Amino acid sequence: MSRKQSSGGNRLHLLDTIRGITLCSMMLYHLSWDLVYIVQIPNQNFISFYTSRRGFVWQQSICWTFLLLSGFCIPLSQKRWRRGFVVSGAGILVTLVTLTFLPEDRVIFGVLTLIGAAMLTMALLEPALSKVPPLLGLCVSACLFYVFRWVNAGFLQLIPGKTITLPAAWYHGMAATFFGFMEPGFYSTDYFSYLPWIFLYLVGYFLYGILIGKKKRPAKIFYGSLPPFSYLGRHSLLVYLLHQPILYMGCELYMNYLR
Hints:
The chain is mainly alpha-helical. It has one domain (9-258). 66% of the residues lie in helices and 3% in strands. It has helices spanning 3-6, 13-39, 44-50, 53-73, 80-101, 111-129, 134-148, 174-179, 194-211, 227-234, 236-258, and strands spanning 155-159, 162-165. The protein has a two-stranded antiparallel sheet with strand order 1-2. Helix 5 (80-101) packs antiparallel against helix 6 (111-129) and helix 6 crosses helix 9 (194-211).
């Protein structure tokens, strides 16, 4: 976010609030993961919920919100290259740490890697994309996200019930896996490939153009704030990097000394 947007009266606190609420949801989701797969709690009702479609929808709601918000905030940022490299570096750090200490729960091409790549893409293409009418851009991005939604599984979907199977030869190597053509045997506990998720990111970007665009002052609702959540939202990268190690250590402490 630019210095202007980060200062008192000009900051759109609602974005921080939504990000903070989503962070809390994410921490609860990851705590649930730890309880199911590390602590291995015996509560079958909880396990059934977490591993069911409802748990999947919960997880997707977190990721979708983060990506839409990140894309929405791109026009507010004046340091896109720097932020893109910082977030990409954080994604690489998560990968290195998990490969070293938790190889069975490794994170390769996780959500931070995706957001960093998306930020760098926008740093390059935003001058051109800013000329696209926002409603047109949103519609095209949403359609492309729908078409590429299941590219990891080997196909594109044109309309419900109509798919195109992609060549198996495309699904080979880590570079292809990064872009969405996941090679057989690849495993990551947090995998968000460039395709299709860059298009959801673009939906957020064009949504900004529709809701705010070139208005001199956004609607009052964008300045609303819930301080505890806004505070978390302003420090989202730090919270993201620290929360899972803290949760993991808490689970280890419980299993080794308290159970």
